[in-house]
Amino acid sequence: MHQTFDVALGVNLLHANQAGADHNRAHFDKWGITCLNLMSSPGAGKTAILERTLAALSPQLKIAVIEGDMTTELDADRLRQYGVPVIAINTGRSCHLDSKMVAGGIHRLEHEYNPAEFDLVLVENVGNLVCPAEFEVGEHAKVALLSITEGEDKPLKYPVMFQEADCLLITKMDLAPYLEIDLKRIEENVRQINPHVTLIPVSAKTGEGLETWFNWLASQVQSPSPKPLSLHHA
Per its UniProt record, what Gene3D superfamilies does this chain match (predicted)? Predict the structure, then answer.
């Protein structure tokens, strides 16, 4: 857990970050953009889900991605193959994106493109099950991912991310036949923490649940309603 108060500087870090997040959100609102913040532990499948999402929705929605990673641009390069703007942010030793980092991405988006043309900005946060949920970046909704390989107890052991999530994708469902995992128990543990979250089991490999995810995502878009989705299961 991060210290929420820097004694040396006398600055409330979370308060300062929240002010920046509100500023970022005001930019998105001005442009009519919906921003979603995708969060999970490392390896839960954020980039794989984004690949399927961009393949299916980018023909109908104007999408940009802000891609957070500690050092490389490997995930950003994977997503650039889908022909959408991908702004990479390397956080160095920081285990999460914060509003100031994302503000830098917004400024790049504004400089290189006409942001008013975009419908959706997807922020892929740094892989971490704790810190990203504490620092808003200007998003309109938070999407958490939990792989079934992580176990049934993670929502109870790391509750903050699950408390904050508006939508939870339970990923890698194609592995369910090979694991001793109780999906009902996972759902019960999640509901204990957050009874109102939208919960969608998915598999980026087989396409299970992706149509439900795409439709939820499209329902969040601020811009005029998109055309009926024609899904491409690449």
Answer: P-loop containing nucleotide triphosphate hydrolases
